[in-house]
Amino acid sequence: MFRRLEVLVDGQARYKATLSQIDWQQLDIAIEDVDRIEITRGPGSVSYGFNAFQGMIHIFTLHPADSSRIALAAHYQSDQGRQGYASLASSREGFDQRLSLWGQRVGEFGGYHDNDNPPDLSQTKAANWQAQLRPDANNRLNVEADRNLNQQEGNSNASIQQDSEVLTNTGDHLMPEWQQENRDSEWQLRSYGIDTPLGNWALTSRYDADTVMYQHNPRWLWQADWRIDW
Question: The pTM is what?
Answer without folding.
Answer: 0.75
